Amino acid sequence: MLKKTSSDSYRLLTPVLSSRNRTAEIERITKLINDHPFPNNPIQPILTKHIPLSSLSPPLVSQVLGRLFAAHSNGLKALEFFNYSLKSSPPTPDSFEKTLHILSRMRYFDQAWSFISETRNTYPNLLTLKSMSILLCKVARFGSYEETLTAFARLEKEIFKKKFGVDEFNVLLRAFCTEREMKEARSVFEKLHYRFNPDVKTMNILLLGFKEAGDVTATELFYHEMVKRGFRPNSVTYGIRIDGFCKKRNFGEALRLFEEMDRGEIEPTLQILTTLIHGAGVARNKIKARQLFDEIPERGFAYDCGAYNAFMSALMRCRDVSGAMLVMKEMEEKGIEPDSVTFHSMFIGMMKCKEFGFDAVCELYYKMKGRCLVPKTPTVVMLMKLFCLNGEVNLGLDLWKYMLEKGYCPHGHALELLTTALCARRRANDAFECSRQTVERGRCVSEPVLRMLETSLSSTDELEKLEELKRKMQKLHSYLPPPGTQLLS
């Protein structure tokens, strides 16, 4: 047996260290951008001072923008970072798409259209179906039917400058279906399908839209229309229908479709098996969930985090939280890292099970922090509510500070919960500090938070703090898009 030398050990350790250093650098830059008092001071000098251009690589830029997106950072600050990164290297499609997504999600449509127009002139290769989908989906969400069609025409004539085909038509339909506007999606299909030659993907997009709208009857009717029009169903088609029946607790029909796939020699996917495992949980059928989970390697697939999450969720729906914890342990032993969904499901299962108390949830919370995993917004709000309702406001503050340390600014609902709990315990200064941190990161606080602060601070003769916060919000409002923002300026 060969003995490992110290240099061998170093070579094995180097990728780990490199990965840790990269993660630390991503967090540092994200925190630097989020912590920057916006819009009081320009951010470019800060970026120049603290982020050497030589340290910026395209993957690092993309990962930082991904963190800024997940942290719900202010879109203008993300745009400033993107522009700064251009001094180092050309942008990647991923970094461009993430910046566009951050801008359009915050309704900075003036800036989004300018951004995509400038990109058309400088880096036209970055204009993809995905970037088109990002912008159209947000226009469909915040605008009208007519504005969405106008945006589609503008993208064709002014931005992409080419005649659109079925792929672009599919993007337009997806925009309406994503927002569950099926009446509008159907209208667009009937109006334009003669111009564009629909394919099976077109029909699956519409089928998915009906399913996401929660109308299993409309889904099945459209499926039969799809077959009548001559389109052959594929695994995606079956996956959509199976998911629709699982969500409506009709697990028997979902299994029937799964068996129909086998008879029709349509290969199932790992996603379909994962959907069925989750569906078995909804039906409180633990035995079938286990059977489907065991089928994954038998059908030639490798277990992933999604499959484990579905099985754990199924066990918890059957009130077997202890079993779910053992599955989570097995998952970790196999080297599959738990994600935010894993912890969210475990938190819910523990909260609903009398066998596990508040202390068990706290233990899992510290385990999540120990892994440096940043929870998604629903988890943050859920934990904040749990901590505050159980009189553990210090744990709420701990969660708040943890999110800030990771470069995130927690959701406004989490702030409302924390502020209410702090003010109820006469800790108005802590509540004010959390609100100030939110505003300085480019996010406004709600009217209920302001009213609570006004009541609490007035009793301690510190209303000047509230006036300071209002002045910062007023300045911030001048940079935020107004409620009636034009989508197609």
TrEMBL record:
Listed Pfam families: PPR, PPR_2
Keywords, sorted A to Z: Repeat
NCBIfam families tied to this protein: PPR
Similarity-based family: Belongs to the PPR family. P subfamily.
PROSITE patterns per record: PPR
Name the record gives this protein: Pentatricopeptide repeat-containing protein
Top-level division of the source organism's lineage: Eukaryota
Cross-referenced PANTHER family: MEMBRANE-ASSOCIATED SALT-INDUCIBLE PROTEIN-LIKE, PENTACOTRIPEPTIDE-REPEAT REGION OF PRORP DOMAIN-CONTAINING PROTEIN
